Amino acid sequence: xxxxxxxxxxxxxxxxxxxxxxxxxxxxxxxxxxxxxxxxxxxxxxxxxxxxxxxxxxxxxxxxxxxxxxxxxxxxxxxxxxxxxxxxxxxxxxxxxxxxxxxxxxxxxxxxxxxxxxxxxxxxxxxxxxxxxxxxxxxxxxxxxxxxxxxxxxx
Length: 155
Fold this sequence. Notes:
This protein has helices spanning 32-35, 51-65, 110-120, 145-151; strands at 83-88, 93-98, 127-132. By secondary structure, the protein is α+β, with helices and mostly antiparallel strands. It has a domain at 47-147: Fe-S cluster assembly (FSCA) (GMP Synthetase, Chain A, domain 3). The longest helix has 15 residues, at 51-65.
């Protein structure tokens, strides 16, 4: 006879999940966005961009963003055109405005969390925030030529 395991009485884990790292090293990716308490439904605060810091950090931020891939499409999220804006303020807070290919995207939790963790890990960045935006909606015209070529889109 088959039995069903009931997990209703098992408390959720209280510690963030561990990431693979060498003994004694800090985890290689920030997973706090995956385990943090949900924020209240208030709009994100506007950030006053610091043009000099944005210019200084943007290349390093882009270097991290090109390592993040949509799990359903073999192209990084920067070349896909999912990144709408990159802002760094005077306190070195990096704000990434990004979208997803569709509102029901299965990676709606993991992609922003991965972006936040990789940007936050950049030396000199004090914190990172990802603002998910839906306007304007993403379409294939936002993809780079390299992404179109990789996906075989020739129109």
